[in-house]
């Protein structure tokens, strides 16, 4: 009833973890697998190790959101075969999130991921707070096309493009699809800031961070809806998912699968709760398959 497929991956249910919440070490994959996700998504891996930004890097906000600027901290490409091996041991598909500051870096990472036989790669073209990475690249549709095209040309596994909130996100999505990606992940955290009213300074060491959690969910729904309406693409929806109703909204807007991030910090039972709610929802509506509802709200 809850089975789905996206980017060539057949999944028992639509709920994955979002990149950035664990996933850079093999023991992290064990924790995520125990949560019950249908596929595991790594933290973004770059060619060389990155230490990230000094603390403070995370702040909980008054509106139930979270602001973070980790800075793509990760151990570098050497961990790719280790993560791939652990995912196979756990019996879970692995989507490797990769990030580069140039087309060449993305290409090399895609080659390494293919050699390690991970199940798919997700191009991080959406991180809003790492200078020279992520959103700085994804906001240029033609650069998105070049990165996606060259990556697809060397990858023997499905390529997914993760795009963030920009004025040109629909155009970037179209260019990524034109270049041959199998699916789109929409969206990432939204660039934002928090200021301490007593120290009179920005809270985060990087000043800017990525806003996540419930405040960005309606934005994610809108972007998924608009991109699905334009292209009827295969989409993984992400942004502020904290209940089964959030997942249902993204499915109705066009998502075949979803990713959960911030909610994991507050609710370790989120996957079970979502799956139980979706199952009851389908029964109430009289549907036998979640796939029958993908994009049904799009007009």
From TrEMBL:
Q: Name one GO molecular function term.
A: dihydroorotate dehydrogenase activity
What gene makes this protein? pyrD
The UniProt entry lists the main location of this chain as cytoplasm
| Natural source organism | Desulfurococcus amylolyticus DSM 16532
Q: Where is the Dihydroorotate dehydrogenase catalytic domain?
A: 1-281
Record has Flavoprotein as a keyword: yes
Organism superkingdom: Archaea
What is the E.C. number? Answer: 1.3.-.-
Cofactors that this protein relies on: FMN
List the protein's name: Dihydroorotate dehydrogenase
Which positions in this protein are listed as binding FMN? 19, 43-44, 124, 162, 187, 213, 239-240, 261-262
Lineage, highest ranks first: Archaea, Thermoproteota, Thermoprotei, Desulfurococcales, Desulfurococcaceae
């Amino acid at each position: 009833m809850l089975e789905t497929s996206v980017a060539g991956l057949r999944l028992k249910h639509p709920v994955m973890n979002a990149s950035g919440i664990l996933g850079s070490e093999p023991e992290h994959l064990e924790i995520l697998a125990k949560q019950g996700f249908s596929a595991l998504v790594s933290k973004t891996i770059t060619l060389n190790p990155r230490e990230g930004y000094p603390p403070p890097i995370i702040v909980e906000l008054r509106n139930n959101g979270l602001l973070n600027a980790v800075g793509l901290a990760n151990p570098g490409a050497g961990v790719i075969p280790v993560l791939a091996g652990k995912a196979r041991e756990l019996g879970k598909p692995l989507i490797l999130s990769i990030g580069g500051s140039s087309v060449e870096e993305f290409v090399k990472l895609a080659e390494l991921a293919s050699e390690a036989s991970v199940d798919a790669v997700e191009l991080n073209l959406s991180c809003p707070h790492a200078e020279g990475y992520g959103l700085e690249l994804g906001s240029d549709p033609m650069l998105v096309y070049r990165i996606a095209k060259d990556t697809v040309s060397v990858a023997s596994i499905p390529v997914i493009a993760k795009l963030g909130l920009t004025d040109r996100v629909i155009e970037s999505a179209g260019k990524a699809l034109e270049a041959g990606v199998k699916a789109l992940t929409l969206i990432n955290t939204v660039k934002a800031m928090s200021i301490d009213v007593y120290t009179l300074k920005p809270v985060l060491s990087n000043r800017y961070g990525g806003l996540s959690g419930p405040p960005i969910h309606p934005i994610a729904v809108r972007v998924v809806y608009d991109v699905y309406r334009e292209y009827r693409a295969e989409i993984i929806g992400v942004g502020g998912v904290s209940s089964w109703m959030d997942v249902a909204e993204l499915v109705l807007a066009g998502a075949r699968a979803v990713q959960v991030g911030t909610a994991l910090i507050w609710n370790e039972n989120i996957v079970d709760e979502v799956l139980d709610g979706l199952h009851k929802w389908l029964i109430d509506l009289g549907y036998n398959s979640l796939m029958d509802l993908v994009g049904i709200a799009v007009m």
